[in-house]
Every structure is written in C-alpha cells, then in structure tokens.
Amino acid sequence: MPDVVRTIGGRRLRVDVSGDPRGKPVFLLHGMPGSRVGPRPRAMFLYQRGARLISFDRPGYGGSDRRPGRRVVDIVEDVAAVADALELGRFAVAGRSGGGPHALACAALLPGRVTRAAALVGLAPRDAEGLDWFAGMTPFNVRDFHTVLTDPARYAAGIFPRSAVIRSNPARLLEELRSDLTDEDRLIVSDTSIRSMLLRNYHEALRTSPYGWIDDAIALTSPWGFDPAHIAIPVLLWHGARDVFSPPSHFSWLAARIPRAKAVLEPKAAHFASLRALPDVLDWLLAGTPQD
Length: 292
Hints:
Radius of gyration: 17 Å
Largest sheet: 8 strands, mixed
Number of strands: 8
Structural class: alpha/beta
Strand order of the largest sheet: 1-2-4-3-5-6-7-8
Order of helices and strands: EEEHEHEHEHHHHHHEHEH
C-alpha cells in the first residue's frame, strides 16, 4: 500500500490505510484542522466489519503538498487519485466536521464510484439560500469566519502563531474550545483513547505548515463548486442538536436540499459526539458498498 500518492499535477498526498486490507473501501475525510491520523474506530472493529479505511491529508496538512486557492469541490480530484492508486473501483465516503462538505462533493461529482456518503456535524454552504449561516454558532467561530470573509490575509496572519503554539502543545486547541463544549463533549475529549488520537491528529495536521487550516477555512466560506441538491446517491447526515461549532440549522438545510438524505439529529449530542457515532455510520456505509 503506498503511503504517498501523486496527483495528475504531481502534488503529493500522504495516505493512511487501516483495517482489513481486502475489506470494503471507505474514505474518511478529516476535520479542520486535521490529518490522516485523526480519530477513527479501532483496527479490530474495522477487521470485524470487513472495512478498509482510507484517509489522507488534505492539501497543506501533514505530509500533503499545498494547493493554493483550492475549493471544496477540488477534493474530488484527490479522492479519485488515491482510489486509482489503490486500484479501487467503487467505495464509500465519510467526512466529519470540515470533512463533511468534502464528502458531499464526492457524492455529487463521483456518482459512478461513490456508493454511499455520510457527513457528520458538517457545515452548509456559506451562500445557502434562506439560511442565517452564523445563527447558533459560537462567537469564537463567528469571529474567525467573519475574518476569513472580510480579510483573509489577516486571518492567515493570526493562524501562523496560533498553529505554532498548537504544534508544540496540541492540547492547547482543546483548551481553546473547552468553554464552548457541552458536559458530554468534555467527557468525550477527556477519554484517554480519544484524547490521544485528537492530540496526535492536531500535531500532524500542523507539522509542516498552517496552510491546510487556512485554505480549508477559505474554501468552506467560499462557493463550494457544486450544489448539494444534485447529489443522486444515498447520503447519511448525522448531527447533534446542541452543536455550536456547526449549528443544527446547517444540518436541516442540507437535509431539505439533498434528495436521498437520511437525516439523524441526536437531541442531546453536540460536536464531538460524532466520534462515538462513527462506528454506526460506518456500518451504514458498508451495507451499501459492494466488495471491490
């Protein structure tokens, strides 16, 4: 299995494959900031389910080359490049948080290859008609996204020192978020196994530069390059009703827009509860994915 894949344009993508090497393929697209080593079910779970889990660093994160000016839709080219390198025909795709819109892009643009897609605690497009995009969002996120929209250079300048601190002490990111976490989310990120995966994930995400984070924020708040209404394959949307990082109104907008969406809204859950939902989401994805 290659751990580095080259795109048609020659960019490097750092790849990680876990689980059953002959299992049904599922791409897991990480959050923001994030990396290929982000939280996922244990290897034993993946083997038992016959799942081959594929993840890679989005451009600018970890070991993947940057792609300046990338849009959400550009993930399709990278997923296809990794799938081709691994000789995969059909596969499922899941994305959590910032990875959610990227999973939806694959569902929209690769209907002949993507069997099912899932987006967990994701955002809706910034230009979503009829949606107050910032309503219900934590002031921390509102401030950051407003800066991205009005002065991306100032946003980038602020991310450089912030990412340097997080790179040297990844726990700082969880500390920054702590005041906005529900009691349940605080318990989840305090779990020894999950916390270890999150800290490793954040460190790897920012190991080489903060550009993946910067480019993600710009891409998510810019036109995505596709319309979720054009998704023709089955999609699972999972969300927590108490999420203040990706407000549930974004989930509701997507659920109404995507024709074949199965919408699951957990009334007591928030953002990080999606980590505990991943095994059930993978079961749903695998149920509709043939052996490649």
